[in-house]
Every structure is written in structure tokens, then in C-alpha cells.
């Protein structure tokens, strides 16, 4: 149908632009002329890349969450609501070595360079090579959602230690220490009723609800 063709055409344009000038989230200076001359188009590309990062996080981690796929499906559903409502203004994934390997392989197989745009997690803090964290901006909040049995972590605008997004290096060295993405002023486990609790926190702090 026309929707499928439009999505494919959009993806080709996005891939072509990113392949030519690099990821604008990392190569901001190279994209500044586009941002200034065609702000709407620039915003659209950023939105596509944000969507791609969120979906990549859930796709890659789902390959290793074989024991509790239902739990992972709940988390995907929750964050996809915010994504579809365009409330996630930016997103970046930090993969452990296992996820990084899977993402790099997917980028090669599909020839999609955007799939190789992520941060790398160092080891330690009780994290395994399969762990990953999704770092998001919703309003003034920075949120790190951990995979597997990890918690959600929320920093406000005034919290000095909120983690930066878009750390990336081409030498495959760690970009994040796991501890940087943990121990936020507000955090919680994905126990029964976590969706309601987390949605309330986000709404109370930002006024946003999908």
C-alpha cells in the first residue's frame, strides 16, 4: 500500500542523509546548516532517529529476554505509547557487549547505518554483557530504563548527575559506566502496578500523559 511505500521512501532519505553527513545527534556541527535552513526537515530526521533508537532497544533486548517475554512486552507497550505520542524528545541506547555485537551485526546485514549509532556500556555494577539501558528525554526529565531486572531511573532538570545522551566513539570503547545510569533520585522496580506509578511520576513532573 501507499503507507508502506511512504515509510520505505522516508527511510531511504533518512539513511542517505545520515550516511552522507553522519548522525546529527553526534555530528551537530555538520548538520547546523540544515537545522538553520530547513528546521522542519531537521526535526523530522531527529524524530525518526529517536523512534529508531527506542525500537532498537526493545528489539535487541527481546532476543535475550527469552525467560520473561511477557514482562518485556509490557515495557515495550508502555514506552511505545510515549513514543507514538511524540513525548520522547530524544533517545539513546547504551548496550553491553552482547547487545552491541547484535546491533552491529544488524547494521551490517541491513546496510542501515543508524543501527550502529549507540553508546557502549562498560562492565561492573552487577551488570552483565546482555544488559542495556535506554536513555530518554521526556519534558525536563532524563529517564534511564534498564533491561532485564534493572530499574527505571529518573533525574529532574536540577539534578546535577543526570546522564548525557549521545555518547559514542568509533573505537568500540565504553561510553558509559553503568553506575552513571543508576541510583537516580527517583527509581523503581517493575513490580506489579509499575506502569501506573511511573506514568504518575512523569505526569506530575511534566504534565505529560499519552
Brief overview:
The chain is an alpha+beta fold and 210 residues long. It has helices at residues 2-21, 28-37, 39-62, 69-84, 97-110, 194-206, and strands at residues 88-95, 119-120, 132-138, 141-146, 152-155, 186-188. α2 packs across α3 (39-62) and α3 packs antiparallel against α4 (69-84).
Biggest sheet architecture: 6 strands, mixed
Number of domains: 1
Low-pLDDT segments, ≥5 res: none
Mean pLDDT: 88
Q: What level of helicity do the residues show? A: 40-55%
The fraction of residues in strands falls at 5-15%
Characterize the structure shown.
- The protein has about 210 residues and is of the alpha+beta class.
- It has one domain.
- About 45% of the residues lie in helices and about 15% in strands.
- It is built from six helices and six strands.
- Strands 2-1-3-4-5-6 form a six-stranded mixed beta sheet.
- Helix 5 (about 95-110) links the parallel strand 1 and strand 2.
- The longest helix has 24 residues, at about 40-60.
- The model has no long low-confidence stretch (mean pLDDT about 90).
Amino acid at each position: 500500500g501507499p503507507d508502506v511505500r511512504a515509510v520505505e521512501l522516508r527511510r531511504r532519505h533518512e539513511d542517505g542523509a545520515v550516511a552522507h553527513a553522519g548522525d546529527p545527534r553526534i555530528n551537530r556541527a555538520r548538520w547546523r546548516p540544515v537545522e538553520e535552513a530547513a528546521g522542519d526537515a531537521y526535526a523530522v530526521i531527529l524524530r525518526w532517529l529517536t523512534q529508531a533508537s527506542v525500537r532498537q532497544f526493545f528489539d535487541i533486548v527481546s532476543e535475550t529476554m527469552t525467560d520473561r517475554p511477557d514482562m518485556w512486552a509490557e515495557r515495550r507497550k508502555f514506552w511505545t505509547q510515549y513514543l507514538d505520542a511524540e513525548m520522547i524528545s530524544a533517545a539513546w541506547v547504551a548496550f553491553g557487549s552482547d547487545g552491541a555485537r547484535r546491533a552491529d551485526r544488524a547494521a551490517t546485514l541491513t546496510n542501515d547505518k543508524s543501527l550502529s549509532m549507540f553508546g557502549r556500556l562498560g562492565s561492573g555494577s552487577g551488570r552483565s554483557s546482555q544488559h542495556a539501558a535506554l536513555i530518554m528525554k521526556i519534558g525536563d526529565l532524563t529517564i534511564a530504563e534498564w533491561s532485564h531486572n534493572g530499574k527505571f531511573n529518573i533525574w529532574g532538570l536540577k539534578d546535577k548527575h543526570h546522564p548525557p545522551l549521545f555518547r559514542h566513539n568509533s573505537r568500540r570503547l565504553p561510553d558509559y559506566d553503568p553506575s552513571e545510569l543508576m541510583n537516580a533520585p527517583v527509581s523503581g522496580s517493575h513490580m506489579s502496578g509499575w506502569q501506573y506509578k511511573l506514568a504518575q511520576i512523569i505526569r506530575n513532573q511534566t504534565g505529560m500523559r499519552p
